[in-house]
Structure formats: C-alpha cells, structure tokens
Amino acid sequence: MKKHLKYKGVTVGAFGFPIFSSDEKNVKKSGSPGRKYYQYRRFDHVFKRTSPKNLIVMYDIFGDMRKERDWLRYHLKKFDYVMIQKSVWVGPSPLPKDFLEYVKKIGIRDQLRTLKLAKPYSVGDSDM
C-alpha cells in the first residue's frame, strides 16, 4: 500500500504538487444534504413614518433556520416595526402581499402569527 502525504488537507506528491484522483471518496462535498440555500429577497419600505402601529407580528422560528429569522427581523425593522419582545413586534398593517408570499416560499409562514389591534399602539403607552 502506497503512503500519501497531505498538505492542508490535500494529498500531495513528493514535490508538493496536489494529486487529483477521480475517486468519489476524495471529493469533498460542501453543505449538508437536503439543506435549501436561498438568495434572500429584499423588500422596499412601503409604510409612512406616521402610519398607525396596529398589527402585532409574533414568530417562533427554530434555531436551525437562523438565517430566515434574521432576514425576517431585518425586514420588520425596515418596515418601521417596534420590538416589544425578542419575537414580538408591532407596526403598521397590512404587511405587503408579495412579502407574505415570499415568507411562505422560504418556509417560515407556519411559525408566524399576526394579530390586528383594536386601537393603535404607541411606544409611550403603559397601562400597568
């Protein structure tokens, strides 16, 4: 059996040149099998600064979907939503239709809930 030298994870010959083979076992595959990769879409700001904040958005997105959760937080901030808790946001309604369709496409629509408020939320309100 012939012994091979390795340099930075690559099999090399006596002079340090890489040895390429057609064996499948030597091919390094990147990414986990079955994982979806998206080029996440950006949405424009559609609400006025003075729009009443009358929609609560709540979500519970699992840790393995961290990129999707961060993408959602980014857009809620962009849509002038205010964070009440880490996964509870309040802002203007309704959310854009194409935004909700895209949320469904990337697979987080089932973890997202929206509630319409009877009267608009203002940041200074506290009834405690």
Task: Describe the structure in your own words.
With 128 residues, this protein is an alpha+beta fold. The chain has a domain at 53-121: Alpha-Beta Plaits, CATH 3.30.70. It is built from two helices and six strands. The protein has helices at 66-78, 97-105, and strands at 5-7, 10-12, 53-59, 82-85, 88-91, 112-121. The strands form two sheets. The protein has a four-stranded antiparallel beta sheet, with no helix packed on it. The protein has a two-stranded antiparallel sheet with strand order 1-2. The protein is rod-shaped. Residues 24-31 have low confidence and may be disordered.
Features:
128 residues, alpha+beta, Alpha-Beta Plaits, 6 strands, rod-shaped
Q: What ranges have pLDDT less than 50 throughout 5 or more consecutive residues?
A: 24-31
Over all CA atoms, what is the radius of gyration?
A: 24 Å
The span between the termini is 78 Å
Computed structural class: alpha+beta
Number of helices: 2
Number of strands: 6
CATH fold-level topology of the domain at 53-121: Alpha-Beta Plaits
Mean pLDDT over the residues: 79
Strand order of the largest sheet: 4-5-3-6
CATH architecture of the domain at 53-121: 2-Layer Sandwich
Which H/E pattern describes the elements?
Answer: EEEHEEHE
Strand content: 15-25%
* Helix residue percentage: 10-25%
The CATH first-level class of the domain at 53-121 comes to: Alpha Beta
